[in-house]
Amino acid sequence: MSRGIAALTRAVLFTPIFTLSRPAKVVLEIRRNSPMEMVQKAVGEMLDERAGRGRSDAAPSAGDLARTAEGFFDLREMAKKSLGRNWVTRTPQERDEFVRLFTGMLSRVWLRTLKTGKRITYTGETVSAARATVRTTVALERQGQVRVEYHLVPSGNNRWRVHDVLVDRRSLVEGYREYFDRALASSSYQDLIWKLRLKEVEMSPAAASV
Protein backbone atom coordinates (compact mmCIF):
# COMPACT_ATOMS: atom_id res chain seq x y z
CA MET A 1 0.00 0.00 0.00
CA SER A 2 2.81 2.38 0.92
CA ARG A 3 4.49 1.78 -2.45
CA GLY A 4 1.24 2.55 -4.28
CA ILE A 5 0.76 5.78 -2.35
CA ALA A 6 4.34 6.79 -3.05
CA ALA A 7 3.89 6.14 -6.79
CA LEU A 8 0.65 8.12 -6.88
CA THR A 9 2.32 10.97 -4.98
CA ARG A 10 5.17 11.07 -7.50
CA ALA A 11 2.70 11.10 -10.38
CA VAL A 12 0.69 13.97 -8.92
CA LEU A 13 3.66 16.10 -7.87
CA PHE A 14 6.12 15.61 -10.69
CA THR A 15 4.08 15.01 -13.86
CA PRO A 16 2.69 18.61 -13.95
CA ILE A 17 6.18 19.98 -13.41
CA PHE A 18 7.49 17.91 -16.31
CA THR A 19 4.59 18.92 -18.52
CA LEU A 20 4.94 22.62 -17.82
CA SER A 21 8.70 22.52 -18.25
CA ARG A 22 8.31 21.72 -21.96
CA PRO A 23 8.15 24.77 -24.25
CA ALA A 24 4.57 25.84 -24.82
CA LYS A 25 3.46 26.63 -28.35
CA VAL A 26 1.57 29.91 -28.15
CA VAL A 27 -0.24 31.27 -31.20
CA LEU A 28 -1.02 34.98 -31.09
CA GLU A 29 -3.47 36.51 -33.55
CA ILE A 30 -2.41 40.08 -34.23
CA ARG A 31 -5.32 42.11 -35.51
CA ARG A 32 -4.66 44.60 -38.25
CA ASN A 33 -6.89 47.64 -38.20
CA SER A 34 -9.45 47.33 -40.97
CA PRO A 35 -8.97 49.56 -44.02
CA MET A 36 -12.33 51.24 -43.40
CA GLU A 37 -11.39 52.04 -39.81
CA MET A 38 -8.16 53.61 -41.02
CA VAL A 39 -9.91 55.75 -43.65
CA GLN A 40 -12.55 56.88 -41.17
CA LYS A 41 -9.87 57.84 -38.66
CA ALA A 42 -7.85 59.86 -41.18
CA VAL A 43 -10.90 61.65 -42.57
CA GLY A 44 -12.11 62.34 -39.04
CA GLU A 45 -8.76 63.83 -38.09
CA MET A 46 -8.85 66.12 -41.10
CA LEU A 47 -12.39 67.28 -40.41
CA ASP A 48 -11.59 67.74 -36.71
CA GLU A 49 -8.73 70.02 -37.73
CA ARG A 50 -11.22 72.20 -39.60
CA ALA A 51 -13.75 72.18 -36.78
CA GLY A 52 -11.06 72.99 -34.22
CA ARG A 53 -10.44 76.31 -35.94
CA GLY A 54 -14.02 77.40 -35.35
CA ARG A 55 -14.85 77.80 -39.04
CA SER A 56 -15.86 75.06 -41.46
CA ASP A 57 -13.89 76.71 -44.27
CA ALA A 58 -10.74 77.35 -42.24
CA ALA A 59 -7.71 75.67 -43.80
CA PRO A 60 -5.44 73.39 -41.75
CA SER A 61 -1.80 74.35 -41.78
CA ALA A 62 0.64 72.71 -44.16
CA GLY A 63 2.11 70.85 -41.19
CA ASP A 64 -1.30 69.47 -40.16
CA LEU A 65 -1.98 68.31 -43.70
CA ALA A 66 1.44 66.69 -44.06
CA ARG A 67 1.20 64.85 -40.74
CA THR A 68 -2.19 63.36 -41.59
CA ALA A 69 -1.12 62.52 -45.15
CA GLU A 70 2.10 60.81 -44.03
CA GLY A 71 0.17 58.43 -41.81
CA PHE A 72 -2.45 57.75 -44.46
CA PHE A 73 -0.91 57.71 -47.95
CA ASP A 74 2.04 55.75 -49.33
CA LEU A 75 3.42 59.08 -50.46
CA ARG A 76 6.76 58.03 -51.89
CA GLU A 77 5.23 55.28 -54.01
CA MET A 78 2.43 57.57 -55.20
CA ALA A 79 4.95 60.29 -56.08
CA LYS A 80 7.11 57.76 -57.95
CA LYS A 81 4.17 56.47 -59.99
CA SER A 82 2.95 60.00 -60.68
CA LEU A 83 6.32 61.10 -62.02
CA GLY A 84 6.53 57.92 -64.11
CA ARG A 85 9.64 57.37 -66.21
CA ASN A 86 11.04 60.74 -65.13
CA TRP A 87 11.56 59.40 -61.59
CA VAL A 88 14.43 57.16 -62.74
CA THR A 89 16.65 60.05 -63.85
CA ARG A 90 16.23 62.10 -60.67
CA THR A 91 18.88 62.24 -57.93
CA PRO A 92 18.04 61.15 -54.37
CA GLN A 93 17.84 64.81 -53.32
CA GLU A 94 15.53 65.66 -56.21
CA ARG A 95 13.30 62.70 -55.36
CA ASP A 96 13.06 63.78 -51.73
CA GLU A 97 12.05 67.30 -52.71
CA PHE A 98 9.53 66.02 -55.24
CA VAL A 99 7.93 63.78 -52.59
CA ARG A 100 7.68 66.77 -50.24
CA LEU A 101 6.05 68.97 -52.88
CA PHE A 102 3.80 66.12 -54.01
CA THR A 103 2.69 65.59 -50.40
CA GLY A 104 1.48 69.16 -50.13
CA MET A 105 -0.25 69.07 -53.48
CA LEU A 106 -2.02 65.75 -52.83
CA SER A 107 -3.04 66.82 -49.32
CA ARG A 108 -4.67 70.01 -50.61
CA VAL A 109 -6.59 68.09 -53.30
CA TRP A 110 -7.79 65.56 -50.74
CA LEU A 111 -8.91 68.29 -48.35
CA ARG A 112 -10.69 70.14 -51.15
CA THR A 113 -12.56 66.93 -52.04
CA LEU A 114 -13.68 66.52 -48.43
CA LYS A 115 -14.72 70.17 -48.20
CA THR A 116 -17.01 69.88 -51.22
CA GLY A 117 -19.40 67.72 -49.24
CA LYS A 118 -21.79 68.04 -46.36
CA ARG A 119 -21.87 64.32 -45.55
CA ILE A 120 -19.54 61.36 -46.09
CA THR A 121 -21.04 57.88 -46.26
CA TYR A 122 -18.93 54.73 -46.07
CA THR A 123 -20.63 52.26 -48.39
CA GLY A 124 -18.38 49.22 -48.07
CA GLU A 125 -14.95 47.66 -48.26
CA THR A 126 -13.31 44.77 -50.09
CA VAL A 127 -10.28 43.23 -48.39
CA SER A 128 -7.78 40.55 -49.40
CA ALA A 129 -4.30 39.74 -48.14
CA ALA A 130 -2.63 41.94 -50.75
CA ARG A 131 -5.01 44.87 -51.27
CA ALA A 132 -8.17 46.57 -50.09
CA THR A 133 -10.72 49.05 -51.40
CA VAL A 134 -12.83 51.36 -49.25
CA ARG A 135 -15.82 52.89 -51.00
CA THR A 136 -17.37 56.18 -49.92
CA THR A 137 -19.71 58.81 -51.26
CA VAL A 138 -19.47 62.52 -50.56
CA ALA A 139 -22.85 64.29 -50.68
CA LEU A 140 -22.37 67.73 -52.24
CA GLU A 141 -23.59 70.92 -50.59
CA ARG A 142 -26.10 71.69 -53.34
CA GLN A 143 -27.03 68.42 -55.02
CA GLY A 144 -25.59 65.17 -56.23
CA GLN A 145 -22.68 63.21 -54.87
CA VAL A 146 -19.11 62.21 -55.63
CA ARG A 147 -17.86 58.65 -55.32
CA VAL A 148 -14.47 58.39 -53.66
CA GLU A 149 -12.62 55.06 -53.53
CA TYR A 150 -9.47 54.51 -51.49
CA HIS A 151 -7.17 51.76 -52.74
CA LEU A 152 -4.87 50.43 -50.03
CA VAL A 153 -2.00 47.96 -49.66
CA PRO A 154 -0.59 46.39 -46.49
CA SER A 155 2.16 48.30 -44.73
CA GLY A 156 4.33 47.44 -41.75
CA ASN A 157 3.12 47.25 -38.17
CA ASN A 158 -0.26 45.79 -39.16
CA ARG A 159 -1.30 48.93 -40.99
CA TRP A 160 -2.60 49.83 -44.43
CA ARG A 161 -1.49 52.64 -46.73
CA VAL A 162 -3.46 54.33 -49.49
CA HIS A 163 -1.64 54.05 -52.83
CA ASP A 164 -4.34 55.63 -54.99
CA VAL A 165 -7.65 57.47 -54.71
CA LEU A 166 -10.38 57.29 -57.35
CA VAL A 167 -12.77 60.23 -57.55
CA ASP A 168 -15.73 59.21 -59.70
CA ARG A 169 -13.53 56.39 -61.07
CA ARG A 170 -10.77 58.83 -62.02
CA SER A 171 -7.38 57.88 -60.56
CA LEU A 172 -5.50 60.70 -58.87
CA VAL A 173 -2.16 59.01 -59.60
CA GLU A 174 -2.97 58.62 -63.30
CA GLY A 175 -4.20 62.20 -63.46
CA TYR A 176 -0.99 63.50 -61.94
CA ARG A 177 1.13 61.36 -64.26
CA GLU A 178 -0.65 62.78 -67.31
CA TYR A 179 -0.16 66.32 -65.97
CA PHE A 180 3.55 65.81 -65.26
CA ASP A 181 4.13 64.10 -68.62
CA ARG A 182 2.56 67.05 -70.45
CA ALA A 183 4.51 69.57 -68.39
CA LEU A 184 7.84 67.81 -68.95
CA ALA A 185 7.18 67.39 -72.66
CA SER A 186 7.29 71.16 -73.11
CA SER A 187 9.63 72.32 -70.33
CA SER A 188 12.42 71.11 -68.07
CA TYR A 189 12.18 69.31 -64.77
CA GLN A 190 13.62 72.40 -63.05
CA ASP A 191 10.78 74.50 -64.49
CA LEU A 192 8.23 72.03 -63.14
CA ILE A 193 9.77 72.10 -59.67
CA TRP A 194 9.85 75.90 -59.71
CA LYS A 195 6.12 75.97 -60.50
CA LEU A 196 5.38 73.47 -57.71
CA ARG A 197 7.41 75.54 -55.24
CA LEU A 198 5.56 78.69 -56.31
CA LYS A 199 2.20 76.93 -55.87
CA GLU A 200 3.25 75.79 -52.42
CA VAL A 201 3.98 79.40 -51.42
CA GLU A 202 0.73 80.66 -52.92
CA MET A 203 -1.29 78.10 -50.96
CA SER A 204 0.43 78.77 -47.64
CA PRO A 205 -1.70 80.36 -44.87
CA ALA A 206 0.65 83.38 -44.76
CA ALA A 207 0.12 84.10 -48.45
CA ALA A 208 -3.63 83.59 -48.14
CA SER A 209 -3.87 86.17 -45.34
CA VAL A 210 -2.12 88.92 -47.33
Structural commentary:
This protein is α+β, with helices and mostly antiparallel strands and 210 residues long. The chain has one domain (35-208): Tgt2/MlaC (Nuclear Transport Factor 2, Chain: A). Helix content is 54%, strand content 20%. It is built from eight helices and five strands; from the N terminus they run H-H-H-H-H-E-E-E-E-E-H-H-H. The chain has a five-stranded antiparallel sheet. Helix 2 (35-52) packs antiparallel against helix 3 (62-70), helix 4 (75-83) crosses helix 5 and helix 5 (92-115) packs across helix 7. The longest helix is centred in the middle third of the chain and has 24 residues, at 92-115.
How is this fold's topology laid out?
Blueprint: H1 2-21, H2 35-52, H3 62-70, H4 75-83, H5 92-115, E1 117-127, E2 132-140, E3 145-155, E4 159-167, E5 170-171, H6 172-186, H7 189-202, H8 205-208
